[in-house]
Amino acid sequence: MDTQSELESEGSDDDEPAKKRKKKRHEIEHDLTANLHNRTPQSSADFERLLLSSPNSSFLWIQFMSFQLQLSEIEKARETGRRAIQTINFREEQERLNVWIALLNLENSYGTEQTLDAVFKEASRANDSKTVHLRLASILEDTQKVEVGHPPLSAQIASKQFSGNRGTVSKDLQEI
Predict the structure, then answer these.
(1) 3-class secondary structure, 46
(2) Which of 6, 17, 139, 156 is the S-S candidate for 161 at Cβ 3.0 to 4.6 Å?
(3) What pTM was computed for the model?
């Protein structure tokens, strides 16, 4: 009987440290999640956790795209941008526009003229066309690709598709 009572007491001792380890592990997991709001995400999983809590934040989506570009994952950055546009609520027009502009920047830097043109046309349909045109003109000017020009953009500005004249368009560009 003494051995049985010893076994029972040993069994309860084994359960106690296991409970402590489980509790401590839970505290560590909780602390890691809490720290995500105070530090920059370090992995795709970190970004995914943050995006679950703030799916309409273009800031987070664009940071995630940038993170993937730092890892030379250009295609994943494109997919993330597309996913952001699908995920962000349609009422959040400015947030969606921010992601479109990020996609235009991505295609301008890493894509071809054809991919830039395709994203540009899609962004123009999904947002205020004048705003997208002006932002693309600003992007091209900033990257000094204006000399090469973007044929649809320069043709539309030259043909005065938008209300006002070229001076107004230039003024609008300066405001951006």
Answers:
(1) helix
(2) 156
(3) 0.67
Closest residue by Cα to residue 62 from 31, 92, 38, 83: 83
Largest CA distance in the chain: 101
The Cα–Cα gap between 62 and 67 comes to 9
Measured distance CA(130)–CA(124) in Å, rounded: 8
Task: Report the candidate in 53, 155, 58 with the shortest Cα–Cα distance to residue 97.
Answer: 58
CA 36 to chain CA centroid, nearest Å: 16
Structure tokens at 131: 């705003």
Angle at 142 (CA atoms; ends 138, 144), nearest 5 degrees: 115
**Do residues 41 and 50 touch, judged by C-beta distance below 8 A?**
yes
- How far CA 165 is from CA of 93, 120, 156, 171, in Å, comes to 27, 22, 12, 10
Residue 22's alpha-carbon distances to 15, 17, 56, 83, in angstroms, are 11, 8, 34, 36
